[in-house]
Amino acid sequence: MKIKAILDVLEEMAPLAYAEDFDNVGLLVGDANATATGVLVCHDALENVIDEAIRRQCNLIVCFHPILFSDLKKITGKNYVERSILKAIKNDIAIYAVHTALDNHQQGVNKIFCDALGLTNTRVLIPKPNFIQKLVTYTIPENATKLRNALFEAGAGKIGNYEDCSFTSQGMGSYMGNENSNPEIGERFEFVEAAEIKIEVTFEKHLQGKILKALFQNHVYEEVAYEIYALQNTHQNIGLGMTGELENPMDESEFLQLVKDKMQADGIRHSAFTGKKIKKVAVLGGSGSFAIGNAISAQADAFITADLKYHQFYEAENKLLLADIGHFESERYTKNYIVDYLTKKIANFAIILSEENTNPVKYF
User: Fold this and answer.
1) Cα dihedral 7, 13, 18, 20 sign
2) What is the pTM of this model?
3) Residue 325 has pLDDT above 90, yes or no
């Protein structure tokens, strides 16, 4: 198996187009055309993890956090990033990062977080904007069903919990071909008016190439008339953070103990208790201070995240309970999810969960 075949599976799990613009995801180091010997899945591709990959004969490391995040102008081994990259290159080890591509996925980091806490009725907290496009095209009635089904097959027409969504309308089209034309209906230089079906479907913008390929391959016209629009609608199933509900409301102290136990947190920093029961919970794995306002707007009783600064605890405004459980802790089960996904998709191949603890934060 080539490494590229595994990368294709990883992109099915977390499409790179889902990642935030600031992020650095995908294949960071290595040759995608090399033959894979094994996959090591970790949280951070540090030097000790590279050593583990060498020891366990894995030449592909799949990490959550990208070890290459900021630009590198030199690679001399002067810091932990450069040392990791150098060792990976010397040993022909490829490194692939998922990070916010999986953060934004409906089944990704924050769904894993919610599941660990036993939350139900989950919804994306901050739906991703500027990610939906609309295709409008026109064809003859005899071609409409075939064309529409091909667009569905290519990934168009998915809205929330529904698939194969479209809108069709009837109208009259007109055209006249020149000497180089080969019209489906009528002859060259003949003015033609014919009944047409207008088909409208939405799609995720990263699928545009696939959608257009399906359009051109299944349309009967020599010249395909189509339009693509960028929509302002947010994508309700893609985005950062998530809300969910506890089966039974809890006191704040009882709830924090639940979080501490389920997320294996060695300590939790939190805002002042509000005195309210906790029922609706917002979560955001990793650094989530920017989403405090979103959690309040969602009417969450508690917001669980990481990396909150001193003054940000004031932003609770007695409207909800803020809790910082630690960056690593809030994402700790992500690598388990990746291993499970790859194991199901790639049978009879070595998919290994790293045994190295890469959490840089220690508690006394």
Assistant:
1) negative
2) 0.89
3) yes
What is the band of 220 on the pLDDT scale with cuts at 50, 70, 90? very high
Taking a C-beta distance cutoff of 8 angstroms, is the pair 239, 130 a contact? no
Six token digits for residue 195: 């009944």
With contact defined as beta carbons under 8 Å apart, do 211 and 135 qualify?
yes
Rounded average pLDDT over 134-149: 96
Place of tokens 């969602």: 298
Residue 192 φ then ψ, to 5°: -115, 135
Classify each residue of 199-232 as buried b or exposed e, where b means 16 or more C-beta atoms within 10 Å of its C-beta.
Answer: bbbbbbeebbeebbebbeebbebeeeebeeeeee
Strands 167-175 and 192-204: antiparallel
Give the separation between CA 266 and CA 316, rounded to whole angstroms.
Answer: 23
- Report pLDDT digits (tens) over 272-316: 999 999 999 999 999 999 999 999 999 999 999 999 999 999 999
Alpha-carbon span 81 to 122, nearest angstrom: 36
Host H or E run for residue 109:
helix 109-117
> What is the helix (H) or strand (E) element at residue 87, kind and residue range?
helix 80-90
What totals of helices (H) and strands (E) does the chain contain, helices first? 11, 15
Cβ-proximal residues to 225 (8 Å cutoff; 6+ apart), any chain: 137, 138, 173
The span from the CA of 45 to the CA of 257, in Å, is 31
